[in-house]
Amino acid sequence: MIKENSKNKFLDGRLSIIQQKKGFRAGHDSVLLASSINAKKGDRCLELGIGVGVVSLCLLTRISDIFVTGIDNDKDIIKLLKRNIALNGFKDNFSIINGDLNDNIDSFEELKRHSFDHIFCNPPYYEEGEVFIPTDKNKKNAYIGEKDFINKWIKFSLTFVKSKGSITFINHINNLPRTLSIFSKSMGGITITPIFTNFKKPASRFLISGIRDSKKPIKFRKGIILNNKNGKTPKKIENILRYGKSLYSITL
Questions:
Q1: Residue 129: pLDDT above 90?
Q2: Global confidence as pTM
Q3: How far, in Å, CA of 95 to CA of 50, rounded?
Q4: Could you tell me the CA-to-CA distances from 229 to 199, 219, 234 in Å, in that order?
Q5: How many CA atoms lie within 13 Å of 87's alpha carbon, on the beta-carbon side?
Q6: Residue 207 clears pLDDT 70, i.e. is over it
Q7: Strand pairing partners for 224?
Q8: Which of 54, 170, 218, 230 holds its CA 20 to 30 A away from the CA of 75?
């Protein structure tokens, strides 16, 4: 069956993204994750579960002189990813691997261990058996991970990140305790940023970043509130979502 696609604009129209109409669709989380990667010119980045590429393309729009390797296990999505890379003019900045992050790490022969400055991802929110599994393959891959997938994805990241390199996840708030537990056993300089839909509701997601071989303590940021009391996006958050500013360039 041929799946219908749509073309959507990100970062105030600077990015054009083709994605499936009925599959997983990237949104605010992808832009927020990109804003939290403290990359600089010449850095090498690795995105796990890259999908159609919104996170990395947002990051490249802010810092064009970096190189990104992306891993995904869905060949149909990789086709869309390649179209998006070409459409936005970043063909020279990408390397793509069709692989399953649940496979043995040794199967990723293309990757050199401890070679990336930044590794980041928006992993699934749930493990198998926790919720109803979507029939759409793309949605299933995005939302449902195998048993103990968070531990596996962090272990994978630690295998390929440099000493003093960063690992950054965005995920559902329910996964914060176990994610923080694993991060704190293997990294330092951990920064946690809760994400709130508005003032009235508790945090629904979180950003967490850690530094390999760092001894610095954990830091909790004030948090991102996407809508103010009037239901509008605050200017400082709009600077991230619309204009692609770094999370660390604003005061929360």
A1: no
A2: 0.91
A3: 11
A4: 7, 27, 10
A5: 20
A6: yes
A7: 195
A8: 170
